[in-house]
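Friendly challenge for the regulars: who can give me the structure tokens for this chain first? No prize, just bragging rights.
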Amino acid sequence: MSWLITLWLLVFSACSVSSPTEPVCEPTRNPMQGEPRILCVGDSINNSPPGYYTFLSRKSRMVFISGGQAWQLDDAIASFVVDGDTHVVVLIGILDVLSPQYCNPPRDCRTAEHLASVCSKIESLGAKPLVATMLPLNPRGAFSHVSLEGLNDEIRGLGYTVVDFSALGVTSQDFYDNIHPLPALQARMAAVVDSTVR
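First reply, four minutes later:
Bragging rights claimed.
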């Protein structure tokens, strides 16, 4: 029986979701007990292989929302935070900017409003929310002309601890595509999170 319990803990240490009710789980590091445990949630940037959470120095797991919009995370966040999660890094909103037609209602994404709601729910569940600014876009990608500073300013004004990914300098060599970071950039993202978690 003990080996079954151990296997269950390993398999369910980190999850991604194709829908809010259908998690697909991935393994993560297993440091010593008593350390902070970080849950990284948001859009597919969180799941860009291998996932920036794998570079964190603390115990971590990840859940990403297929569709990747803030209203979806607002609906689902209460089911993702579990006992033992001490900090929750929220990185979502880029697709609200790039694909507002999929927001609910369409083109009225209310991203900052949903992020504030997500953070409030995280607090009510006993964890500390850390809300991330948007990672810069690939400067040679199809969306290089899109400005994210308006959303980033709203995120900074929410009143929660900010993980400032927007300050990371990037080149086209840092991305798989238009928005998804390669491992070297993911490692730098993790360093920002590590420096923010106290």
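The domain at 2-196 is CATH 3.40.50.1110 (Rossmann fold). Confidence is low (pLDDT under 50) at residues 1-14, 16-33. Your move, everyone else.
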